[in-house]
Amino acid sequence: MARIRILIVEDEPLIAEDLRGHLDEMDYEVCALCDNALGAMAELTAARPDLVLLDINLGDGADGVQLAERINAKHPLPFIFVTSHADVATLERVKAVRPAGFILKPFDERQLRAQIEIALARYAHGDAPMDKLDTPEEAGFVISESIFVRDKGRLVKVAIDELLFAEADDNYVTLHTPTKRFVITSTLGSVEKKLNSRHHLRIHRSYLVDTRRITAVEDGYVHLGPSRLPVGKTHREALMARIRTL
């Protein structure tokens, strides 16, 4: 499990530090803070953020809309405009670059958290309408090899490679990692489709496992360390074929 990494691009130091403080309080990781477009482009490569908070008016010859165009072209990831300007002309300019969110200054922590979570969910679902989004409580969502889920009231990301196995129980699925478990409202089939992982294989109607983590195989069961999981009859052949390729 890792904290969500956010890049702040803001040329007003007081506003930038205010944003950093709010994000720290919400347990997000501010991976870098930039006051110009050139520095932001460098940090996109070096810091690999999950999301960018982007001021529209940077004042260095390349405003936030121009920077957003570069992000879309070279480093596709969700970004939220943070601005004090909400006039019609500004809104028309930003629509063309398809921001994942829009926050007006001054902002509060509740608004900031909501916009970040909505932005990540919309990006994961290809800018789907709000009523079509899966929230982390319902089904999680996947971006760049990580599944985003709720943990004790906050949004966290879990690398798909950390997922040992997923266990279905009625309309809930428990995601097991080496150190934690996360429960989401979903079917196992939906989780399997979202993960789209070449390493995770359905071995039972109730279990999806990372075949690389299998430590032993016995009649009707596999072991992933201390966990002993059943293998369904209809899944045995596919499992053995996969194991032979490991």
The CATH topology annotation of the largest domain reads as Rossmann fold
The helix/strand order is: EHEHEHEHEHEEEEEEHEEEEEH
Mean pLDDT score, rounded?
87
Structural class: alpha/beta
The total of beta strands comes to: 16
Q: How much β-strand is present in the residues?
A: 25-35%
Assembly status: single chain
Number of helices: 7
Principal-axis shape equals elongated
Helix percent reads: 25-40%
User: How many domains, as an integer?
Assistant: 2
Q: What is Rg?
A: 21 Å
Low-confidence segments, given as residue ranges, are 128-133
* Terminus-to-terminus distance: 26 Å
CATH class of the largest domain: Alpha Beta
The name of the CATH architecture of the largest domain is 3-Layer(aba) Sandwich
- CATH homology group of the largest domain: Response regulator
- Spatially, the strands of the biggest sheet line up as 2-1-3-4-5
Largest sheet geometry: 5 strands, parallel
Explain how this protein is built.
The protein has 246 residues and is an alpha/beta fold. It folds into two domains: 5-127, Rossmann fold, CATH 3.40.50.2300; 141-245, LytTr DNA-binding domain (OB fold (Dihydrolipoamide Acetyltransferase, E2P), Beta Barrel), CATH 2.40.50. Helices cover 31% and strands 30% of the residues. The protein is built from seven helices and 16 strands. The protein has helices at residues 13-25, 37-47, 64-74, 88-95, 109-124, 188-195, 236-245; strands at residues 5-9, 29-34, 51-55, 79-83, 101-104, 141-143, 146-151, 154-159, 165-169, 172-176, 181-185, 200-204, 207-210, 216-218, 221-224, 227-230. The strands form four sheets. A five-stranded parallel beta sheet has the order 2-1-3-4-5, with helices on both faces. A hairpin with a 2-residue loop joins strand 6 and strand 7 (146-151). Helix 2 runs parallel beside helix 3 (64-74). 35% of the residues are buried. Mean pLDDT is 87; it is low at 128-133.
